[in-house]
Amino acid sequence: MSETTELSVIEIKPEQAPALYIPNGLESYFEHIKASVSEAPDLSTKKGRDRVASLAGQVSRSKTAVEKPGREYLKRLKEAVRPAEQEIKRFVDACDALRDETRKPLTEWEAEQDRIAAEKAAEEERLRIEAEQLAAAEVQRKQKEADHELALLLNIQHDRDAADKAAEKERQRIAHEEEIKRQAVEQARIDAEENIKREREESAQREAALKLKAEQEEQAKIEVQQAAEREKKEAAEKVERDKKEAQERAEREKQEAIAEEQRKQQEAEQRRVAEEKRIKDEADRRAANIEHQKKINNQVFDILIKAGISADCAKECVIAIVKHQKEAAASGQHSPVKINY
Question: For the chain, which terminus, N or C, has the lower number of CB atoms within 10 Å?
Answer without folding.
Answer: C
